[in-house]
Amino acid sequence: MKVANRGDVKPFYAMEVMKAANKLESEGRRIYHMEVGQPATSAPQAVLDAAEKALKDNPIGYTEALGIPELRSAIAKHYGDMYGLDLDPKRVVVTTGSSTGFLLTFLSLFNTGDRVVLAEPGYPAYRNILGALDIEAVGLPCGPNTNFQPSPDLMATIKDPVQGLLVASPSNPAGTMLTSAELEKLIGYCEERHISFISDEIYHGLTYEQDAATALQFTNDVVVINSFSKYFSMTGWRLGWMIVPEQLVTTVEKLAQSMFISAPSVSQHAAVAAFDCKGEVKGYINAYAKNRELLLRELPKIGFDKLAAADGAFYIYANVNHLTDDSMEFCQKMLNECGVAATPGIDFDPHRGHEYIRLSFAGAYEEMEGAINALRQWLI
Q: Which of 199, 259, 279, 322 is the most buried (most CB within 10 A)?
């Protein structure tokens, strides 16, 4: 049977590392998991209770493609509570995780052969989904001088026309953020040139020095993608959402009807309760902040002294070019020799990622302490 070229995408190395780490763990090795952005915490208790009630009280069937009205309204209210915005629930699209949101966005905004700019380093699934759709991903090298984020000046270095820009603030893997002024300027640059702007806001709420600005504070002519996975610690519930311009709702709905029917029913009913759990979620964020403080203090002492700002999310992006010129080999050695699982930078930046690794601090504090001790013994 012939295999289509669009399926020829690079592996997600974070998942490959996790597979290798799990194998060693099954053999009795002590492994410190810092390879994936998987919160150590459960979903909030009220979400668990709502899921149990939904299983008892509701037939678990299809919902409307755009999501149940209660959840769409709760999401719209969240934008009022968090950002002071009056958002029409009709613009809210509930999705099967944020990954579905990216697929629906790319399908509804771009044609075959269009070009979409992605910051490098950036989340690898962006590139892979675009490639599978025959849309060209245009890598934009971003470094410490712009806090690993795109800027109008960097965008101006791209000579050929582009149709889209995808921005993540806070970002994965660097955890860096755009200020409100920087985000507004970038959106303005794109509007002047009719470049579609997509804002990945999955790590909103997970910030440590300043709150993140949403693109919706500056214009309605953007697509915003978010998820219950990170902030609400609901990765396995496979539930996300999009905020789309009014003129895009029908297009997205028709695509969603044919491709996904609807997001998981139980997850939708349970997630309505998530927005009443922000006190519990604050406890999660405090735990991440404690982990972050530990790593930012201790990593430089053991040789990891070139770190991205880690303004938000739960990642440390470390330049290790003084230790290796092959981040994949380095991560393999680190896993095998001291039991610390991390993701090679080539996952996020195919050109300069050989000099970087990403460490996730989404796990328990004890896991972070153990990893630091293991790395100290290995490196010093």
A: 199
